[in-house]
Every structure is written in C-alpha cells, then in structure tokens.
Amino acid sequence: MGRVALVTGASSGLGRVMALALAQAGHRVVLSARDGSGLEDTRKACVAPDRVAILPADLSRESEIPTLARGAEAAFGQIDVLVNNAGIAGNPRHGPLEVEPLEMRRVFEINTFAPIRLAQLLVPAMVRRGWGRVVFISTSLDTMLRFVPYGPSKAAGEAFIAALSTALQSTGVTANVLVPGGMTATRMTERAGDPSTMLPPQIMAPPIVWLASDASDGVTGRRFIAAKWNSALSAAQAAQAAGSPVAWTGYGDRAITPAQAVRPAPEH
Prior knowledge:
Low-confidence stretches: none
Strand order of the largest sheet: 3-2-1-4-5-6-7-8
Oligomer: single chain
Shape: globular
Largest sheet: 8 strands, mixed
Mean pLDDT: 90
Radius of gyration: 19 Å
Number of helices: 8
CATH architecture: 3-Layer(aba) Sandwich
Structural class: alpha/beta
Strand content: 5-15%
Helix content: 25-40%
CATH superfamily: NAD(P)-binding Rossmann-like Domain
CATH class: Alpha Beta
C-alpha cells in the first residue's frame, strides 16, 4: 500500500497534476485549496476517488492551518508526504520599492509562512515513524529577482527547506524543492501569454512520484527542475540530471567562524 500525501493548491494546475500522479502511483491523497468545487473535480479525476479526501482551507488565515493539519492526519491516519504547492502571484507590476506592505504580507502568508507552519505541524510525526517527505514547490532563481513579492516569498521558503533538510539529517525524513523550470500554463499565468508557448503542468508528475517514493531515500536538500527531468532515463539518472543544491547552498563562501578567522602573523 502506498503512502499518504497532502497536496495544497490541488484544485487546478500543478497541484492537480501532482495529486493525480500520486494517486496513480498508489498513494492515498488529501487535497486542499480554497476552491471546493475544483477539489471535487480533482478527486473525480483520480484513478481511485475513494482513496482521496478533500479539505478546503484558506492558507491566508493562520487559524485554518492547524485545522488542516489535524484533518489531513485524521483522513487516513497520518501524512507521509507534504507537498506545499499552494501559492499566489501577487501584483507583478510593482517594483521592490512600490509594493504595498499589506500585499507583501498577503503573499508571504500563503507562499512562505503557511508551508513553514504545515511542516512544523506534520514533520514531527514523520520523524517518529522514521520516514517522510517535504516538497516545496518553488520558482526559478531569475523569477525570484524579477517578480516582487512573489519571488522573494519563494526564495524565503526555499531557504527554509535548506535549513530543514539539515535539521532532518539521518531521520528518514527528507526536504526538497521542485520547480517547473519556466513559465507554466496554469491559472496563475493565464494572462501572461499564449499557453501553447509555456511548459505543460504535466512535467511535474514524474519528479513528484519519485520524490514520494522509497527510491528517493536519503536524497535531501536538493532542488529539482521538472523541465529537465528526462523520463527516457532511469528515475535515479533523471534526478541526477535535473537536480542541484537547494537554495544557495551550492554557491558562495560559507560564513567565517572565529576559529577560521585570519589571525595576525607572529612578530619576529
């Protein structure tokens, strides 16, 4: 029998694709989003609708997050895989100095703080069982720099995953990032151009199935680009080709500690 996954933002787009893929792989899936009718459409599209639960929630409301976590665990007894996918774009027309504080907070509440809180609520039980997965759906590094507040909210979430993966070493619970790799044809981008020129949401299916499987045991602190996932390769080879260090852990110098500090040469 498969694991149990919670997928947020599962009413459409990337979330629906990943939920359907996880259900197809034999997992039981808890679907969450604000759009209850969209969640029902996702449930009906699953290969085994009786192995799917629906929990509508508004992640911009902090009080609803513990309720979602408790309800998700109660649906099938536990949560083994947390897919933090829900997100909003905010207003991309505002520059860093123009974005309103209220808008910044709204985007961060959903894109950053809600995923962090869900991890805090669900991961301890994964650690006790010795197996678990946290997957944060992020965005391309250049998008983080070009679109405010969306980009910074994803950058902060990804930095949290980097810290979480370090904290969870040797527990059996992994924390990774998955990104489409470019503009994807979803509801979020419907006004951004011709969907036929964008990446199809279906590219998220193979990597999320692998990340939720035993085959990815020990793989943590990585960022995977779905557009680079080559299904003609073995899953391990595809992951190697599509992966890199999460956040900025593979770039730049580490902080200098007092023991590393340069000391003056002794006088002769």
